[in-house]
# Entry
Amino acid sequence: MKQRLVVIGNGMAGMRTVEELLTAAPDKYEITVFGAEPYGNYNRIMLSSVLCGEKTIEDIVINNRQWYLDNGIMLHAGEDKAVARIDRKHRKIYAQDGTVAGYDRLLIATGSKAVIPKVPGNELDGVISFRDIVDVNKMLAYSRSHKKAVILGGGLLGLEAANGLVLRGMDVTVIHNHEILLNRQMDKLAAKMLQTELEQRGLKFKMAAKLKQLSGDEQGHIKAISFEDGSRLECDLFVTAIGVRPNMTLAQEAGIYCERGIVVNDTLQSYDPSIYAVGECIQHRGATFGLVAPLFEQAKVCANHLSAHGAAEYVTLPTATKLKVTGINLFSVGDFQGDKDSEIIRFIDPALGIYKKLVIKANKLIGAVLYGETADGNWYQQMLEKEDNISDIRDVLIFGKAYAGVVT
# Structure
């Protein structure tokens, strides 16, 4: 008799786990999936491509509803199907509309929630985050009827949203609390080159900005932003992109041990042995996650254990950063700042808009930033992950794989 697997969350981490499981043990489970969005599984990473017009919603669907039927998966999708409660004692979950499902194994993949700035006016109409299809559709509607957009956050998501809205004809200003764009992924020189290139595309920036409050009109719709320095910006649409927090409320209410996320071990198991968790809702060895590469690795390990082939262990590796803005190439991985014991090799060609920086410590590559020319990014990342000794190719390392005489 098949065991019952219930998955809470129909996003990329949860569904990748199910895909891996269907390959590893196709007949082991009767699978039920609950998702709060009224769609099949789609590629959230490609939402910025939908926003800027390179793709449609249909293009980014990974598994449509037919896929669930074909694989014998019961899908409950939509707001009323969002899970309201986990009853661990009786191993049942309850959805908002009263739907009940029993489980032998439960997989929590509830993702994350956007961080909303704690300033007066954050509840006004026209203040949105950039997380799902609904947000993208709102932004597209605003771009047809409004003019001025402000994006809070000069990270990857903020820049992708800003680029999309500029391409849709809006007047866009990015406000960032740091003087360096992508300050978690770029150093000052690379960030400056990026900012210049984005300004040439029509983006405006207010850097090292401290938000004071959001002001609305009589209808309760946003109209302006005030800053601590006394300045003010007019605004019809305010998009927050300042990070995410693990969505762990359900787990907490069920008494599952959580810290900054749902705490899991190296097999992606929570403190309740019948409950696993993957994706942006988890905390593993102190780390939380916001990029897709580690999520897919977690899915593989989790499926390995759910299929009772359990030998795999999840290890957090340095994750590379790439910006999804057409025509702009940047790559960052590892410790790109270094410390007093590390050495830095740089190559700069301002005319071609190329900047490369490698950080080396004890004859090993520990970090890299590439701007303008990123073809060797994966090679550097592999070297970093394997902790290769680079002393033999140190003098040509900055020029890439071809110059280092590496044959693949």
